[in-house]
Design brief:
heterodimer, A: alpha/beta, 2 domains, 6-stranded mixed β-sheet, two-stranded parallel sheet, B: alpha/beta, 5-stranded mixed β-sheet, 6 strands
Chain lengths: 156, 183
């Protein structure tokens, strides 16, 4: 019996951590690949509306985003809803130029398939929204997505 | 020479995990998982002066939303989304039976007339309800639920076949009119 005891107690118990860097690197690569480095759209405050008939769009490379909401820095930019693309404010008339620029980034055969993601605050008036969609029609970017989040059933 | 060859040289890799952790945390913090969810729609082509399509009144299902987000349906007061859902479905799938509803699903058009002051939220609510009716009809035709129909993967042949069969002859005619200023 004694021989058993000595046999085990003398051994140093250590978990091999040699594989730890590999695991961490795997996670790291996952996040590196999924990260989309875009200029922050942080100048606007917006809460997208909720809906039920949502569709997930898989063609990520075709999507260009337009954000509409109220500026965070109200002292500088006022409280009127503004349009933001790539981290800077633009006017309604600049949308056509923006879409053309986005189309140029796509390969030739996909230019007409551009999808515009409209992320607008729920309190934006429809007047502004239709002005924007009117410009999108002019730029011939007619596939759009009204950005919305999943509707959670309200408790009665 | 021999002396060096015998010795095993090893790079100490214990700090590798720390470096990887640091990078990992950096990417974790900067990642914003983008959601590409929303209501998909296709806009009509641009026209300098929008043509007024000559539609028979029976083929139009008119929904008005005013600047205080009140809804009026076919010149009658709004009685909740459940009722609207039933009415729109009956309107689309009328096939000429009732004289004041649509002649065929192909001709049936839902017309959304809004005011410039209508809130986007209200518009999305109505748009959501209308698309819900269409997806339900499409789903029923191929024997699946509306959410299954929405999530069909068009890259797969059998899904694409279901998608086409569901939509066959029933286009999603939701027209969004230019908003008026007064109201």
């Amino acid at each position: 019996m004694k021989s058993f005891k000595t046999k085990f107690s003398n051994r140093e118990a250590a978990i091999s951590t040699a594989a730890l860097p590999d695991i961490i690197f795997m996670l790291l690569f996952f996040f590196m690949v999924t990260t989309v480095l875009r200029k922050s759209d942080d100048n606007l405050k917006y809460k997208i509306p909720t809906a039920e008939q949502l569709k997930q769009i898989d063609e990520k490379s075709l999507i260009s985003q337009i954000t509409i909401g109220t500026p965070k820095d109200t002292e500088k930019y006022g409280t009127e809803p503004r349009i933001e693309v790539d981290g800077k404010f633009i006017e309604v008339k600049d949308i056509v130029a923006f879409i053309m620029k986005e189309k140029d980034k796509l390969p030739m055969y996909q230019r007409d398939q551009i999808i515009v993601m409209l992320k607008a605050d729920e309190d934006v008036p429809m007047g502004l929204m239709t002005d924007v969609t009117q410009e999108l029609k002019k730029a011939n970017a007619r596939r759009i997505i009204y950005g919305a989040s999943w509707k959670v059933e309200e408790k009665p | 020479m021999r002396r060096y060859q015998r010795r095993k040289t090893e790079i100490n890799s214990s700090s590798m995990a720390d470096i990887a952790f640091l990078l990992l945390i950096f990417f974790l913090v900067t990642t914003t998982i983008q959601s590409n969810r929303g209501l998909s729609a296709t806009l009509p082509p641009y026209a300098e002066k929008p043509e007024f399509a000559k539609l028979h009144d029976r083929n139009l299902f008119k929904i008005h939303i005013n600047s205080s987000d009140r809804i009026m349906i076919e010149d009658a007061p709004f009685e909740g989304f459940d009722r609207l859902h039933i009415d729109v479905k009956k309107f689309i799938l009328n096939y000429g039976n009732e004289p004041d509803l649509s002649e065929s699903p192909k001709d049936a058009t839902i017309s959304l007339q809004m005011n410039r002051g209508t809130h986007y939220k209200r518009f999305i609510e109505v748009m959501d309800a209308m698309q819900g009716v269409y997806y339900e009809i499409y789903g029923e035709r191929v024997g699946i639920s509306s959410s299954e129909f929405r999530n069909l993967d068009l890259k797969l042949a059998d899904h694409k076949a279901k998608y086409d069969a569901g939509r066959e002859g029933i286009p999603m005619n939701i027209s969004i009119a230019e908003p008026n200023k007064i109201n």
